[in-house]
Specification:
The chain has 20 helices and 12 strands. It is of the alpha+beta class. The protein has 3 domains: 172 residues, Glutaredoxin, CATH 3.40.30; 230 residues, Glycosyltransferase (Alpha/alpha barrel); 75 residues, no CATH class. The strands form 4 sheets. Strands 1-3-2-4-5 form a 5-stranded mixed β-sheet. A hairpin with a 2-residue loop joins β11 and β12. The longest helix has 19 residues.
Length: 508
């Protein structure tokens, strides 16, 4: 599916609020927009009137898209958008717009595609300059402040010298983005499905990392839907090489830095191919999909440790992500309340020595590798280096004593960690809660846990009683009403979650 062209997006915005001068984001229902409310940049939300303002004033639009948990979004805010010189230049020469990608996924997808086409890759923060006509001109992701200042000056000079030429360039780019009309794919025969599965498996094995599992030579994302498809292909046609690859990938993701060994749940991705160093944001959609993946892998491979990972992830979701209203929050930030990346999750040696006794410290040093100079600025991140049984033997400890002491060490560290502050994006998104509902239903069915059934009931009620108005689905609800606009993703994931609930409970 091609993202909706900006021309049609304009038509959907005619009833949105009038543009205003100055920064208008303070108090926004979107935590991401609200956190930019104190920037000296005159940010405004995306609206038809802001676009009309750009036409009246003949100014380029600067559209910056991100999300609350994004590490580099926080970095660029701190370094660039709070720089007074940058703010003055933007306020004088550009119309600056902030967009929460989780509330405007159509615009985000459109501009992500533009930047990917023009630069080869894209991500967040996503920064795109548009002509007053709404056509994308140039885009990029994170830029250091000095380079961003240079870009602003050069772009403004070009706009003053040759506006017609830049309009033509942007219009051609927008025309190229329109794509061909959508066509329904022909129905597939069973033989075609099997053939495509074989192609999927062969390409995955060719591209996969044989040393650490997963896909990617630099950053590593868990890609739960891809792995679930490969697991389904293995279940249909067992293959030793594919099983080895899947097991390696699942083991590395579960035991290394992608997963929070202390509090449960997975981070969004790691910055290295070995799964050691995460960017520390935790997303609801990722954890829900990974919980289901590990549940299915536990059954397929008869691995109780995979079931334990799934249980740990579902427990984290219920404990940390369930909101009082009944839905689950969108994400936890990559930075703590003082702006330190991973500060909530990292441990310096002095803190470890203060909290733990000698036996407990020795155990966490062995099991989680938390000894010597910390690999991160903020300290150590727990990563499984050996089992508790291996640590017990290495330390020549009694097995029962070691098990109890390791459990106490984890409890003490968790109690200390809960004293820290971690910013939360409290949006309750329909689609992501649909994924969470599917995960909890799977957990209730496979692990026979009444808490998962009770949690699923809460999500089911929130979707039907809060986000469904009797005629259509809301993407999210804020203090002042609807947030964003529901997409196909919201309807599909919410419907699947509700169907899973109905099958579990034999209800409508």
């Amino acid at each position: 599916m091609h993202p909706r062209p900006l021309s049609s997006i304009f038509l959907l915005l005619v009833l949105l609020p009038m543009a205003a001068s100055g920064n208008t984001l303070r108090g926004s229902d979107s935590p991401y927009l609200a956190m930019h409310g104190d920037d000296p940049v005159d940010w405004q939300p995306w609206s038809a009137e802001v676009l009309a303002q750009a036409k009246r004033e003949n100014k380029l639009l600067f559209v910056s898209i991100g999300y609350f948990a994004c590490h580099w979004c926080h970095v660029m805010q701190r370094e660039t958008y709070r720089d007074e010189a940058v703010a003055r230049y933007l306020n004088e020469h550009f119309i600056s717009i902030k967009v929460d990608r989780e509330l405007n996924p159509a615009l985000d997808a459109y501009l992500i595609e533009f930047v990917t086409r023009t630069r080869g890759s894209a991500g967040w923060p996503l920064n795109v300059f548009l002509t007053p006509d709404g056509h994308p001109l140039v885009g990029m992701t994170y830029l250091p402040t000095a380079r961003f200042k240079t870009l602003l000056s050069e772009l403004q000079d070009q706009w003053m010298e040759a506006p017609d030429y830049l309009r033509q360039v942007a219009a051609k780019a927008a025309e190229a983005m329109k794509g061909a009309p959508l066509m329904l794919a022909p129905a597939l025969k069973a033989a075609d499905v099997r053939r495509y599965e074989e192609v999927l498996v062969s390409q995955a094995l060719a591209l996969g990392d044989e040393m650490s599992g997963g896909f990617g030579e630099q950053t590593k994302f868990p890609l739960a839907p891809h792995l679930r498809s490969l697991l389904a292909a293995w279940q249909y046609k067992p293959d030793a090489e594919l099983k080895e690859f899947l097991s390696l990938t699942l083991d590395r993701m579960a035991l290394r830095g992608l997963r929070d060994q202390l509090g449960g749940g997975f981070f969004r991705y790691t910055v290295d191919p070995g799964w050691y160093t995460p960017h520390f944001e935790k997303m609801l959609y990722g954890n829900a999909q990974l919980a289901v993946l590990y549940l299915r892998a536990a059954q397929a491979f008869d691995r109780s440790d995979y079931a334990a990972v799934a249980r740990d992830t579902l427990d984290f979701m219920l404990r940390e992500m369930m909101a009082p209203a009944g839905g689950m929050v969108a994400s936890f930030s990559a930075v703590d309340d003082v702006g330190a990346e991973g500060g909530y999750y990292l441990w310096d040696n002095e803190t470890l020595q203060r909290i733990l006794d000698k036996q407990q410290l020795a155990l966490v040093q062995q099991v989680w590798g938390m000894q010597g100079p910390p690999p991160h600025d903020g300290g150590h991140l727990p990563i499984v280096q050996m089992s508790t049984a291996e640590a017990t033997e290495a330390l020549d400890m009694d097995a029962r004593t070691a098990g109890k002491q390791f459990q106490l060490a984890g409890e003490r560290l968790l109690a200390e960690r809960r004293k820290r502050q971690l910013p939360v994006d409290h949006k309750i998104l329909a689609g992501w809660n649909g994924l969470a509902l599917t995960a909890l239903v799977a957990g209730a069915r496979q692990l026979d846990n009444v808490r998962y059934r009770q949690g699923a009931q809460k999500l089911r009620n929130y979707l039907l009683e809060t986000l469904w108005d009797g005629q259509r689905l809301w993407r999210a609800r804020g203090k002042h009403g609807e947030l964003g606009q529901a997409t196909l993703e919201d309807y599909a994931f919410a419907a699947q979650g509700l169907l899973d609930w109905a099958e579990l409970t034999n209800s409508k």
